[in-house]
Write a structure and sequence with these properties.
CATH topology of the largest domain: Rossmann fold
Number of strands: 10
Largest sheet: 6 strands, parallel
Strand order of the largest sheet: 4-3-5-2-8-9
Number of domains: 3
Order of helices and strands: EHEHEEHEHEHHHHHEEHHHHHEE
CATH architecture of the largest domain: 3-Layer(aba) Sandwich
Structural class: alpha/beta
CATH class of the largest domain: Alpha Beta
Distance between the termini: 18 Å
Number of helices: 14
Shape: globular
Length: about 325
């Protein structure tokens, strides 16, 4: 994790002194440094500025819910946690599908347990809908139209994800921002909701007052710096063994079509390994650039989603002075 300084953060201790059911939240685009920032905030509390309270982090990154997906998700390692408890990491098999409704139930359960221990829950992650499920207390509309789902699945096979995503953008331009066009599970679900209910995703997911006292902090790095960090991180992941990680997943019986493998880069690497050796794939600079470009597009969708939210207190982290 890259060292950083947290000047510019809101007064967390002051907020907590008056909060009855506090929930800290940290959002930001991919590769913005959320993991390092969260650890620093948690240790600031542990050091005494938040007296008598321990901070426990709840993961809100959909990719980090999956076991075995470590390098390509930038999953925090045990030694990087620095003694800060982390929850909802490595809880699902890559073959399991996950929904925002499932995440809401599990995250709310963890929040209740942390409050019961007298500690402070800290929701950290970049999955827009998962974060919204908690901070907006979403109530999800149930839809069960198996015939429509079958038709959409057939269209996906025949026409491809790009065509269906373009249709979703026409039906619900704002809601489409929260959907990765390559995540076929989410794409089909979003289209099913729009076509079945006749509502945009925001309306189908009813917002309610939050049961928590919220302090939402957002990391807002300069655009050029973020793009540099994204590209640099993708290259570093390849050097750290991302291709070998995907090869190991395929050897375990997972496939490019499993829900966990729809995470950024995993499917592309798995597909490349069907035709080339790991050595060739690892040296494929063009593949790395495509994955980096996709990650930059995702970061843009994240910021487009969060930027209008007046509750978010934005700050720009500074690199730590090592002198």
């Amino acid at each position: 994790m890259q060292p950083m300084e947290l000047s510019g953060l809101p007064d967390i201790a002051g907020f907590l002194s008056g909060a009855k059911r506090p929930l800290l939240v940290l959002v930001g685009p991919t590769a913005s440094g959320k993991t390092a920032c969260a650890i620093l905030i948690a240790h600031e509390g542990k050091g005494g500025s938040i007296k008598g309270k321990g901070i426990e982090i709840i993961n809100a990154d959909s990719r980090q819910l999956y076991r075995h997906l470590d390098i390509g998700t930038a999953k925090i390692r045990n030694e990087e946690m620095c003694g800060v408890p982390h929850h909802l990491i490595d809880v699902l098999d890559p073959k399991e599908e996950v929904t925002a409704a499932w995440f809401k139930r599990e995250a709310e359960r963890m929040i209740a347990e942390i409050h019961a221990r007298g500690n402070i829950p800290f929701l950290v992650g970049g999955s827009m809908l998962y974060v919204s499920a908690i901070i907006d207390n979403l109530a999800f509309v149930a839809t069960t139209d198996t015939g429509l789902r079958a038709k959409l699945s057939k269209r996906l096979q025949d026409e491809g994800a790009a065509v269906l995503y373009a249709e979703l953008q026409k039906l619900d331009p704002e809601g489409a921002l929260s959907i990765d066009p390559r995540n076929e599970v989410y794409l089909l679900r979003a289209l099913e909701v729009c076509l079945t209910t006749g509502m945009r995703l925001e309306k189908a997911k009813k917002k309610n007052p939050s049961p928590y006292d919220l302090l939402i902090v957002g990391i807002d790095p300069p655009r050029e710096e973020l793009h540099r960090r994204i590209t640099q991180r993708v290259h570093a992941m390849f050097a750290a063994g991302w291709v070998e990680e995907v090869q190991s997943l395929l050897a375990k019986g997972y496939s490019a079509d499993d829900p966990g493998m729809l995470s950024h880069g995993y499917r592309e690497i798995a597909t490349a390994l069907q035709d080339h050796s790991p050595e060739v794939v690892k040296a494929d600079w063009e593949l790395q650039e495509r994955i980096a470009a996709s990650s930059r597009q995702y970061a843009k969708r994240q910021m487009t989603w969060w930027r209008p939210d007046p509750r978010i207190r934005w700050f720009t982290p500074q690199a730590a002075n090592r002198s």
